[in-house]
Specification:
Elements lengths: L1 H4 L15 H11 L2 H16 L3 H25 L6 H9 L1 H33 L3 H5 L1 H21 L1 H31 L22 H15 L4 H4 L10 H35 L6 H11 L4 H17 L1 H13 L18 H21 L1 H9 L1 H19 L8 H29 L16 H23 L13 H6 L2
Helix pairs in contact: 2-9, 2-12, 2-14, 3-10, 3-12, 3-14, 4-10, 4-12, 4-18, 4-19, 5-6, 5-18, 6-8, 6-14, 6-15, 6-16, 6-18, 6-20, 8-14, 8-16, 9-12, 9-14, 13-14, 15-16, 16-17, 17-20, 18-19
Length: 496
């Protein structure tokens, strides 16, 4: 009980009104790491659904938009930087809320090291230092250094983070636009060097390759959109915190849809399905191969896009994890020292450094097993993502349960929409578990306890979370005394 008394209410809070809607939107976009996500997923998606890859980008957008609606309405009721943790706690109780918060925090731990590694690798390739990129020692050392630098930027202040993100998103989007434009131009002028295809609107049909392929494509497609909610995790630091963060999250998904569909059209049209399928196991390196094919001596443009994408996401992925841990500590769901706010910068410096430290340790330890094991840990991300997104969708309907029938808008946007999104993600979660149970579907192609490594990692994280939750419950009962609640009448009437 002592740790809940000492330092439980640190002086000052997060810096209010530090950034605006545009900054939040940029951070939401960069958190998804568009160029890196496309590079990592486009080959496997084409291998599964062929020319209908743009359709998969469109279909994957649907559950994301529905869950983004849940984030918008829940943020209107509760501007807490813990987002899923705080909302699920209010709607469904402390046990479900704690597990939701744990899932959000652990996604940052799993992915930060990999993102930084990609940023370093493609950055070195951009400037021609290929030998450095091939050196495990050099690459890992620079990756750790990069994580520390980006963590320091997060702590120095949200304004500084936003300024860095604005520069990185401009560089990333500009590079992607140049690549897509050149690729399509070469297709229509018959100067493409691979096996070009003429783009057609039928490519937008996600059902064109069959239901089995659709399921596999959606499992990959959801990964592309993950991260937009970072804008909402900054709710306590954004101007007009009741609406701007939620709007930024929704608009992030819309902008991502346009980006993904256009680049997918360009890639499939230029390279053809055979080339992309044959190189699907190259992961993000597929863009390195396509860069020289499409841009020739200007291939550094696309390499720079992937590098800045991963660099931006390295920083922004720390935000949801650190803010969620801060929120959990303020409610005594975690030890109170995690709730400390930097007296000068007014950022959660303790929780931020902890996220960085655990992420670095995870990255270094898993890399000692094999680089494939690192990819397996990323695959396990889909389990955590689907879980806490689905949980948030259900929490929205539960929290507003007394107001769902007060208007058609409430019924569709606050009730049916989030529940449908949650249902789709729960289905994808179940499909992921089935897929990951087969060791042959892992990057390592090995069996851990008779299962695929990604599923074992996911189960291990879940078990560790439950154990940590029970231990915390024994140490302090303050958080577990909270009771569920429903949205008050007045906010619901304003929606009509």
């Amino acid at each position: 009980m002592n740790d809940d008394i000492a330092g439980a209410d640190p002086p000052g809070g997060l810096k209010a009104n530090a950034i605006g809607f545009t900054d939040a939107l940029v951070i939401g976009l960069n958190s998804t790491s568009p160029a890196y996500s496309l590079a990592a997923a486009i080959g496997p998606v084409v291998a599964v659904v062929g020319i209908h890859a743009p359709g998969i980008m469109l279909a994957s957008f649907v559950p994301m938009l529905l869950i983004a609606s849940a984030f918008f309405y829940l943020n209107k009721a509760d501007q807490d930087c813990g987002t899923t943790f705080s909302w699920v706690t209010k709607a469904m109780g402390p046990w479900a809320g704690w597990l939701g918060g744990w899932a959000v925090a652990m996604t940052g731990v799993l992915v930060v090291g990999s993102l930084a590694d990609v940023a370093v690798t493609f950055g070195l390739l951009t400037v021609g230092l290929d030998s450095w990129a091939e050196s495990e020692l050099v690459r890992q050392a620079l990756t750790v250094l990069l994580i520390l630098v980006m963590t320091a930027v997060c702590i120095i202040g949200t304004e500084a983070s936003a300024k860095v993100q604005n520069v990185l998103i401009l560089a990333q989007v500009a590079c992607l636009i140049v690549f897509a434009a050149v690729a399509l131009h070469r297709v229509y002028t018959n100067t493409a060097s691979l096996e070009p295809l003429t783009p057609a609107l039928s490519w937008l049909n996600p059902f064109g390759s069959g239901s089995a392929a659709l399921t596999g494509g959606l499992l990959l497609g959801v990964f592309l959109y993950w991260g937009w909610e970072s804008a909402v995790n900054l709710t306590e630091e954004v101007k007009d915190s009741a609406t701007a963060p939620g709007k930024a999250g929704i608009w992030s998904t819309v902008v991502l849809l346009a980006t993904y569909v256009s680049v997918a059209f360009a890639v499939v049209a230029y390279a053809g399905t055979t080339y992309l399928t044959d190189n699907a196991d190259e992961e993000e390196s597929i863009f390195a191969l396509l860069a020289s094919e499409v841009l020739g001596g200007w291939d550094w443009i696309l390499l720079l896009a992937v590098s800045t994408s991963a660099l931006a996401s390295t920083q922004t992925t720390i935000i949801p994890a650190s803010r969620t841990i801060l929120s959990m500590a303020r409610r005594h769901a975690l030890p109170s020292h995690f709730s400390r706010i930097h007296p000068r910068f007014r950022t959660p410096h303790t929780s931020t450094w902890w996220v960085a430290a655990v992420a670095i340790a995870w990255y270094l330890v898993v890399n000692q097993i094999s680089s494939n094991a690192l990819f397996d840990s990323l695959t396990a991300l889909s389990l955590l993502i689907a879980f806490y997104y689905a949980l948030t969708g259900v929490a929205c309907a539960v929290y507003y349960r007394h107001h769902l029938t007060s208007s058609v808008r409430n019924f569709l946007l606050i009730g049916v929409g989030p529940l449908v999104g949650a249902g789709l993600l729960a289905w994808l979660l179940a499909e992921s578990v089935i897929d990951m149970s087969d060791p042959a579907n892992s990057y390592s192609d090995t069996s851990w306890f008779g299962l695929g490594p990604p599923l074992v990692i996911g189960i291990g994280i879940a078990v560790t979370g439950v154990a940590a939750m029970l231990i915390r419950r024994l140490c302090s009962s303050a958080y577990w005394s909270e009771r569920t609640s429903a949205a008050p009448p007045q906010p619901a009437r304003r929606e009509q």
